[in-house]
């Protein structure tokens, strides 16, 4: 069926043209990201922390952003299956959608995409346990990732009121841990199929959080998200929760593909940040 019908009125045409333009733009942006490849759109970097330890990461910096324009910054924490030393595997999930959203909306973000070493975790806690207590110190990879965020804030044109964190599975745990340790650093968080320390809920109640989990997740118990949501609601937290009925572990594909989610994410601002 043709998009324009012979009897289409001027009013309908006026409404349809912007819609068609948006659809075409979205299609072109998606095709552009896929054609170029996330690997080619990001640069491989090494970050040396205060103690001399090294963290491999990828940097996405929008090529067409004005040099003096302050951009949002996203820290993306991958899942356990993408650990390693090749500094590529961590690009598999979520990154294409984040880049595409920025292209479609004209609000691109700088992306920090570190790779956790094979024998490490973003959080030193068991994934299948019903609960855990936040370790006294962050794991070495997460500590380096947080140092990297601070260093990027100092080195690149970042809007400090728009620093965000998101992650999947092991990275979902890392997302909860990051905001528990740095609640005044992040404007919002999207933890996907992870879990945090419920005792830390009062410390993060002012952080806008939207969390996601499948109710048939066989890798990370859905109770980990449910318990964090309950703890945050009890203390008046700024929390939203979407549970996918019948879904297993991979709920990140549909979450990052949902424009409503990413539009909400990037609309959040950290009050009182020095812009």
Care to describe what's here?
This protein has an 8-stranded mixed sheet, with helices on both faces. It has helices at residues 10-36, 38-41, 95-105, 140-155, 170-181, 223-234, 252-256, 259-267; strands at 43-48, 54-60, 71-77, 110-115, 158-168, 188-192, 209-214, 239-244. The N and C termini lie far apart (50 Å). By secondary structure, the protein is α/β, with parallel strands linked by helices. It is globular, with a radius of gyration of 19 Å. Helix 1 runs antiparallel to helix 3 (95-105). It has a single domain (10-267), classed as Alpha/Beta hydrolase fold, catalytic domain (Rossmann fold). The chain is built from 8 helices and 8 strands; from the N terminus they run H-H-E-E-E-H-E-H-E-H-E-E-H-E-H-H. Helix 3 (95-105) links the parallel strand 3 and strand 4.
Keywords:
275 residues; alpha/beta; Rossmann fold; 8-stranded mixed beta sheet; 8 helices; globular; disordered N terminus
Record the SSE blueprint.
Layout: H1 10-36, H2 38-41, E1 43-48, E2 54-60, E3 71-77, H3 95-105, E4 110-115, H4 140-155, E5 158-168, H5 170-181, E6 188-192, E7 209-214, H6 223-234, E8 239-244, H7 252-256, H8 259-267
């Amino acid at each position: 069926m043709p998009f324009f019908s012979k009897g289409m009125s001027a009013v309908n045409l006026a409404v349809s043209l912007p819609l068609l333009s948006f659809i075409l733009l979205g299609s072109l942006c998606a095709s552009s990201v896929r054609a170029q490849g996330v690997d080619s759109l990001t640069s491989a970097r090494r970050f040396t922390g205060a103690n001399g330890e090294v963290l491999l990461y990828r940097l996405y910096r929008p090529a067409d952003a004005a040099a003096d324009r302050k951009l949002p910054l996203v820290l993306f924490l991958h899942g356990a299956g993408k650990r390693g030393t090749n500094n590529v595997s961590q690009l598999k999930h979520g990154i294409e959608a984040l880049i595409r959203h920025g292209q479609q909306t004209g609000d691109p973000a700088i992306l920090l995409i570190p790779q956790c070493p094979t024998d490490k975790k973003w959080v030193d806690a068991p994934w299948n346990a019903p609960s855990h207590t936040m370790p006294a110190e962050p794991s070495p990879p997460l500590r380096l990732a947080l140092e990297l965020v601070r260093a990027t804030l100092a080195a690149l044109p970042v809007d400090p009121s728009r620093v965000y964190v998101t992650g999947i599975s092991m990275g979902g745990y890392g997302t909860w841990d990051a905001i528990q340790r740095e609640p005044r650093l992040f404007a919002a968080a999207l933890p996907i199929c992870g879990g945090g320390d419920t005792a830390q809920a009062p410390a993060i109640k002012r952080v806008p959080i939207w969390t996601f989990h499948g109710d048939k997740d066989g890798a990370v118990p859905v109770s980990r998200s449910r318990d964090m949501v309950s703890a945050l609601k009890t203390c008046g937290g700024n929390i939203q929760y979407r549970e996918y009925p019948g879904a297993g572990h991979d709920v990140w594909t549909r979450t990052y593909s949902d424009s409503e989610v990413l539009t909400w994410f990037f609309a959040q601002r950290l009050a009182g940040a020095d812009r």
